[in-house]
Amino acid sequence: KNQVEQSPQSLIILEGKNCTLQCNYTVSPFSNLRWYKQDTGRGPVSLTIMTFSENTKSNGRYTATLDADTKQSSLHITASQLSDSASYICVVSASGGSNYKLTFGKGTLLTVNP
Amino acid sequence: SQTIHQWPATLVQPVGSPLSLECTVEGTSNPNLYWYRQAAGRGLQLLFYSVGIGQISSEVPQNLSASRPQDRQFILSSKKLLLSDSGFYLCAWSVTGTGGGTQYFGPGTRLLVL
Question: Do A18 and A76 meet the contact criterion of CB atoms below 8 Å apart?
Fold first, then answer.
């Protein structure tokens, strides 16, 4: 069964600090992995996408890494800002078969305090 | 540029009442369309997806139904709401033929069934 597990479930940090969110997946065959940011009460917004051959991708202060061998990904946020407070969702897509289904993690709720 | 709209933003309905949520996409043709439900503390659950007008695939058995009467219009309906239907409903679209491609989410509808 395809699964995506994220940790920690929630995280509180002070403004300006760095943090790293983790994602482990068992989706097979792997196609790509995305990180989404979801502000409270809003729809998710894509931050990064990585395919099998990519092991790092940056989007401003967000840097995602992918280890396809261990089936792990991380999202590193540098110099956090109050606006980074949101839920971060790891989403993995499988290739072949029904291509319209993605496997979503439950998300990590990040709170950045002043 | 493409935009996706959902309405209403918030809805409070009594148990047993009907439901109709609407989603429209602008700026693209023949998109893949999706309905998701996000319950508190849980990941996004795919309810329906559509690759074209009148083509609906259901992912989970439930008392909800979906319709796509026009190319860029996707409707989620129910004849009789249950308490368990409460949640955050998200519509999304992706470029046609890219089932594993990036999905772009709407702002969501928060449904509370009392």
Answer: yes
In chain B, residues with a C-beta closer than 8 Å to the C-beta of A44 are 44, 90, 105
Residue B1, Cβ density class (10 Å: 0-12 exposed, 13-18 middle, ≥19 buried)? exposed
- DSSP string across chain B: --EEEEE-SEEEE-TT--EEEEEEEES-SS-EEEEEEE-TTS-EEEEEEEEETTEEEE-S-SSEEEEEEETTEEEEEESS--GGG-EEEEEEEE-TT-TTS--EE---EEEEE-
Please name the amino acid found at residue B69. P
Q: What six digits make up the tokens of B55?
A: 């083509």
pLDDT digits over B42-77, tens only? 789 999 999 899 999 888 767 899 999 999 999 999
Residue A33: phi and psi, rounded to 5, are -130, 135
Tell me the C-alpha distance between B35 and B77, whole Å. 11
* CB half-sphere exposure, B6, CA atoms < 13 A: 28
Interface check for B49 against chain A (CB to CB < 8 A): the answer is yes
